[in-house]
Design goal:
mainly beta, two-stranded antiparallel sheet, 7 strands
């Protein structure tokens, strides 16, 4: 199920791009925050808490809380609410017991 409102009219947002989250291919709009593209694709859990293993996703949406961290193109702990989506981006999250290990 898709959760996106009407198609964006902004020039930057109009170009569709493909990206992957945990090896699942998805479609989003170039330049939109990665977290927004994940939410529009129905993905609410971006990572698991390192202590309790509880699911984490977007909380503040402005980069203060760090709840939306994920590995993006091999770089760990990227705040997905602040990072623009680009063609071919590889985003992944890991269960809390695998923190510190790189995604495949």
């Amino acid at each position: 199920m898709k959760y996106r409102l009407d198609r964006a009219t902004d020039e930057k947002m109009a170009r569709q791009v493909s990206f992957s989250f945990n090896e699942v291919e998805l479609i989003g709009y170039e330049g939109e925050p990665i977290a927004a593209a994940l939410m529009a694709s129905g993905i609410r859990t971006i990572r698991s808490c390192e202590v309790s293993a509880e699911p984490r996703g977007i909380f503040c949406g402005i980069g203060h809380c760090f709840e939306c961290r994920a590995e993006v193109d091999g770089v760990p702990n990227v705040r997905t609410c602040l990072t623009p989506l680009r063609q071919g981006a590889r985003i992944c999250s890991k269960p809390s017991w695998q923190i510190g290990e790189s995604c495949k």
